[in-house]
Amino acid sequence: MESQAKSSCTRGLIYMQYISLYIKFINLRLRGILEYRKAFLIGVTAQFASYGAEFLLVWIVINRFQTIQGWLPDQVIFLYGLNLCSYALAGFFFFSINSGLPLMIKEGTFDEILTKPLNSFLYLSCREFNTGYLSHLILSIFVIGLAFQRLQLELTFVGFVYLVLVLLGGALIQGAGLIITAVPSFWFTESRGIRELLFFQAKNFIRYPLSIYHGFIQILLTLILPYAFINFYPAQYFLKKQDFGFFSPVFQFVTPIVGLVLFTLAYGFWRVGIRSYQGTGS
Q1: Where is the chain membrane-spanning (predicted)?
Q2: Could you read off the pLDDT of 2-55 as tens digits, one per residue?
Q3: What is the pLDDT of residue 230?
Q4: Is there a domain that residue 93 lies in?
Q5: DSSP state string for 216-264
Q6: Which of 30, 128, 245, 260 is 20–30 Å from 21 (CA)?
């Protein structure tokens, strides 16, 4: 019992050190922004304009048809907001890993990461914190708030807590997607096609209600690439809808669990990739 208590205490201290490291790296990145604030503002503005235009396009398309499979325009916009907000949270920590890992492996600079007396995954997540996703976060919060206001939805304390859990669960799902599509870089020189197909292109489907698609797509985005848990299923809870098709209404409550499970699998896949990379003698 005493040894278990000491082990738990040691793990707790390690976790606290990693949290402290996260804060320090983020602080350094924010200080860098202050040194080049004009470049940062230009980048954020450009991203805001890009995703703002995408938001307007979705809005125009939905308003043109008035309703899609029983979903009103503001309800579809709510799907968009959930998707974008969770993507922003995931992108802060994991997009730079996804985009930068292939180049690091190709140039051999990933070897330097392995020499650090830290977990390579956590180190990269800390060091590569991507502040560019601030624009995504601001826009998504605005869109979610707009949807609640236009749909006259009441957000209780329980509802607010669940909304936070949904966004965190969605962020874990999206983070897992970014990680899983980056790991093949340990085996293949060029893996951008995998990222484009399995993450960005596949995730485009959840801009709209899942029920508008063929049954195969619904199964794919629920059981194989579970992106539907980012927004479609949890949205049913807030919108008081019952558009589950041939899936259970219970699915509206499991986004946080799906996120934890999928992210754990993604991290396990990362460890497999690391072992493979070390085994090559790179």
Answers
A1: 40-62, 77-97, 131-148, 160-189, 210-230, 250-270
A2: 555 555 566 656 666 666 766 776 676 666 666 666 666 666 677 767 777 777
A3: 97
A4: yes
A5: HHHHIIIIIS-GGGTTHHHHHHHHT----TTS-GGGGG-HHHHHHHHHH
A6: 260
